[in-house]
């Protein structure tokens, strides 16, 4: 094949040579019923034991597509005794506000996929956190379209830098798990939202990420949007995604999310996954009967083949069974974890701990003696050696709460070599308090397990953890809480403890990163990518829409129904509209527990000299490290749009991480995202700026923007 030609030309050449059967074969996967017959994947030589498989064509030199879930590392490894690195949660990554870290994150996933024989990643979750109790909040990148788009776009860029195809999901508005599927396997909930609000929130996140990462695939979601199945929506798939966003790759359905042949094909769905119920012989007959034009089938094939050429999976076919380098992966995971953790409270400068001065530390709770928590569902990475809390052979079950071998106790001991350090599991509050009472410092680890398929019924920490923290804090004035949570949680004890660290699900290097931060060998540079509400009642939906107590079992337990509703229901996203997260809080004049963009550091910073370009393309601001040690501040730039926008909230429009030595100042120029300065014109169907005065603000969080400047859009 002539590699001098463009991916477009090469794809078209192949399509000219495909038979109708070959064209059909390329637009659906091989179902699990077939893959599982006679054992997992038995009989299909080049199936690589991932979540999906699309056969290739030996005749034309087109390899099979082997897809693996890989949101935070590669899933399903244990089946093949394969190792893969568990990275921090995507929400943690987003909280680093670091596009380079995101690219490194993606490149590591891409490299390990390739080494394991996969040529496509399915990760790239970017559903905005409208519902922070969504069981997949840890897989997604927070509540802001710009930060989420920059994070996921760069992850995809990283994946594809390894000649592995990337995808982005779940398109669109699949912002909760409750009712994502109904009892019959079709959509359970219908997201109701105005087009302008959708374009300025969830769709904008996709638009920004697609513009940065150019993913090969977009996965459409299980739910309905404004009454139409997301995988059957001409508006979402063809008009918005393919025409307005100029997406060149292909749309695949979420697993089991295709529900028709003609309607889905004409709406713009390009591939049924994982099987062939609608896009196998049914599609062939529909094409033969003229119900789906051949040109539409050719377009589906073109999109798949062009993406394969563009990502390099045809020129650089995977040669499976290289050995993943666990040490390199762990180092990257640790470095990213260090940037992702957020210091939420540090009264009296309890942190950093003085490694040589501290005499005794009580380490309490959340299995901190053996490991760190990971997120479940299809994003679950299998831990090396099995779940450290309940070691047993095989891969962990879907409902299992899985801990990875990265033990905070061990690394705290390595730092404070002279201190007496003891562990208490935290299950017996009286015993935990007794240990805390006789220790100089008490570090209480708390957790909030999350997984695909079910939401958390509330933002409260599960089990007895609030009582545990309160009881320990009542006895020990130097209590530090470490949160291992998938998303935000409420903290009734917030004023009673001296220190609070949000560690997220920190990945295989998590405990090392945490210990480095606790002892001040590294500084906290993470800033919240999601608002922490004070109570569930502050949310647009105080209770998760459609969730009834009958749908979940125990608070921490798994739902036998996987939150499937008994009948379909609407979720009214117009309650918040485009005001997701901090925008909602501002417009409703609510004070959160911790605002979006917030995070402390061991040093302090001052902002000055904000200037904005006359055309609003960039802002310049000076950041000074006013403290005594080096650190990295995130400069956050927000905008208030002219009155004509009708908006009563600010939007994030740009940001930059600024590394500063003690006393150092830097003036940085931060590009402002044009889409984030625009509104969706319901008449013209484009994003456009509003006439009038824009106020640009800069500072250290959504609730601390002391500097203001303006620019005017005259026409
Ligand atoms: C999930 C997707 C996942 C797919 C394949 C679905 O249930 O929603 O995110 O990629 O399964 O495992």
Secondary-structure map:
Elements: H1 7-17, H2 20-25, H3 32-35, E1 52-54, E2 65-69, H4 90-94, H5 99-115, E3 120-122, H6 145-160, E4 167-171, E5 189-192, H7 195-199, H8 202-213, E6 217-220, E7 224-225, E8 228-229, H9 234-244, E9 250-253, H10 262-267, H11 281-288, H12 294-311, H13 326-340, E10 342-346, E11 360-364, E12 372-373, E13 403-404, H14 408-415, E14 420-424, H15 429-437, E15 441-448, H16 465-475, E16 479-485, E17 499-502, H17 510-518, E18 569-572, H18 582-587, E19 605-612, E20 618-625, E21 631-640, E22 651-660, E23 665-671, E24 678-680, E25 687-689, E26 692-699, E27 707-713
Parallel strand pairs: 2-3, 4-6, 5-7, 5-18, 6-9, 11-14, 11-15, 15-16, 16-17
Antiparallel strand pairs: 1-2, 7-8, 10-17, 12-13, 19-20, 20-23, 21-22, 21-26, 24-25, 26-27
Helix pairs in contact: 1-12, 5-6, 5-13, 6-8, 13-17, 14-17, 15-16
The structure holds beta-D-glucopyranose (BGC).
Beta-D-glucopyranose binds next to loops.
Task: Describe, in plain words, how this protein is organized in 3D.
The chain has 715 residues and is an alpha/beta fold. Helix content is 25%, strand content 19%. It is built from 18 helices and 27 strands. The strands form eight sheets. The protein has a six-stranded mixed beta sheet with strand order 10-17-16-15-11-14, with helices on both faces. A hairpin with a 6-residue loop joins strand 24 and strand 25. Helix 5 packs antiparallel against helix 13 (326-340). The relative contact order is 0.12.
Please name the defining characteristics of this protein.
6-stranded mixed β-sheet; 18 helices; binds beta-D-glucopyranose; 27 strands; 4-stranded mixed β-sheet; 25% helix; single chain; 715 residues; alpha/beta
């Amino acid at each position: 094949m002539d590699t001098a030609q463009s991916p477009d030309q090469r794809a078209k050449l192949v399509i000219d040579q495909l038979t109708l059967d070959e064209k059909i074969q390329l637009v659906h996967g091989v179902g699990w019923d077939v893959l599982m017959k006679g054992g997992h994947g038995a009989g299909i030589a080049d199936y690589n034991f991932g979540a999906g498989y699309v056969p290739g064509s030996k005749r034309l030199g087109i390899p099979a597509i082997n897809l693996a879930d890989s949101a935070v590392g590669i899933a399903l490894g244990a089946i093949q005794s394969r190792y893969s690195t568990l990275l921090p949660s995507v929400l943690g990554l987003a909280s680093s506000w670091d596009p380079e870290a995101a690219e490194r994150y993606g490149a590591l996933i891409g490299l390990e996929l390739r080494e394991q024989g996969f040529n496509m990643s399915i990760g790239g979750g970017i559903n905005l956190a409208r519902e922070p109790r969504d069981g997949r909040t840890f897989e997604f990148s927070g509540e802001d379209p710009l930060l989420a788009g920059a994070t996921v776009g760069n992850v995809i860029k990283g994946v594809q830098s390894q000649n592995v195809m990337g995808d982005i999901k779940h398109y669109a508005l699949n912002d909760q798990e409750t009712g994502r599927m109904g009892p019959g396997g079709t959509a359970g909930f219908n997201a109701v939202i105005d087009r302008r609000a959708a374009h300025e929130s969830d769709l904008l996140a996709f638009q920004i990420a697609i513009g940065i990462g150019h993913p090969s695939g977009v996965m459409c979601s299980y739910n309905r949007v404004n009454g139409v199945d997301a995988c059957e929506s001409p508006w979402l798939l063809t008009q918005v995604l393919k025409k307005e966003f100029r997406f060149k790759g292909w749309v695949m359905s979420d697993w089991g999310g295709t529900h028709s042949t003609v309607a889905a094909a004409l709406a713009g769905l390009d591939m049924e996954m994982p099987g062939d119920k609608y896009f196998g012989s049914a599609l062939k007959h529909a094409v033969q009967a003229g119900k789906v034009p051949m040109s539409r089938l050719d377009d589906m094939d073109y999109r798949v083949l062009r993406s394969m050429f563009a990502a390099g999976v045809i020129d650089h076919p995977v040669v499976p069974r290289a050995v993943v380098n666990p040490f390199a992966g762990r180092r990257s995971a640790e470095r990213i974890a260090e940037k992702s953790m957020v210091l939420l409270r540090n009264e009296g400068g309890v942190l950093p701990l003085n490694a040589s001065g501290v005499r005794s530390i009580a380490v309490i709770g959340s299995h901190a003696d053996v490991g760190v928590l990971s997120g479940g569902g299809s994003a679950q990475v299998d831990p090396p050696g099995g779940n450290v809390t309940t070691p047993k052979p095989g891969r962990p079950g879907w409902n299992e709460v899985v801990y990875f071998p990265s033990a905070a106790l061990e690394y705290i001991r390595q730092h404070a070599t002279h201190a007496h350090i003891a562990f208490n599991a935290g299950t017996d509050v009286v015993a935990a308090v007794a240990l805390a009472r006789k220790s100089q410092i008490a570090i209480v680890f708390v957790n909030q397990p999350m997984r695909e398929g079910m939401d958390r019924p509330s933002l409260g920490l599960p089990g007895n953890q609030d009582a545990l923290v309160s009881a320990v804090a009542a006895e020990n004035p130097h209590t530090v809480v470490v949160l291992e949570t998938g998303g935000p949680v409420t903290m009734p004890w917030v004023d009673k403890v001296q220190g609070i660290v949000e560690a997220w699900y920190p990945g295989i290097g998590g405990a090392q990163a945490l210990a480095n931060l606790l002892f001040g060998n590294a500084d906290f540079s993470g800033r919240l990518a999601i608002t922490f509400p004070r109570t569930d009642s502050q949310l647009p939906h105080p209770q998760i829409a459609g969730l009834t107590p009958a749908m979940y079992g125990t608070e921490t337990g798994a739902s036998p129904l996987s939150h499937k509703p008994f009948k379909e229901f609407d979720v009214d996203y117009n309650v918040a509209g485009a005001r997701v997260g901090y925008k909602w809080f501002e417009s409703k004049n609510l004070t959160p527990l911790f605002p979006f963009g917030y995070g402390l550091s061991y040093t302090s910073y001052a902002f000055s000299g904000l200037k904005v370009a006359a055309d609003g393309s960039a802002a310049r601001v000076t950041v000074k490290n006013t403290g005594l040690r080096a650190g990295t501040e995130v400069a956050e730039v927000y905008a208030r749009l002219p009155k004509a926008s009708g908006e009563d909230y600010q939007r994030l429009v740009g940001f930059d991480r600024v590394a500063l030595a003690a006393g150092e100042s830097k003036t940085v120029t931060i590009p402002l995202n044009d889409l984030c300065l625009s509104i969706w014109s319901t008449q013209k169907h484009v994003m456009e700026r509003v006439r009038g005065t824009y106020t640009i603000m800069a500072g250290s969080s959504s609730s601390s923007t002391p500097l203001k400047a303006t620019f005017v859009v005259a026409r």
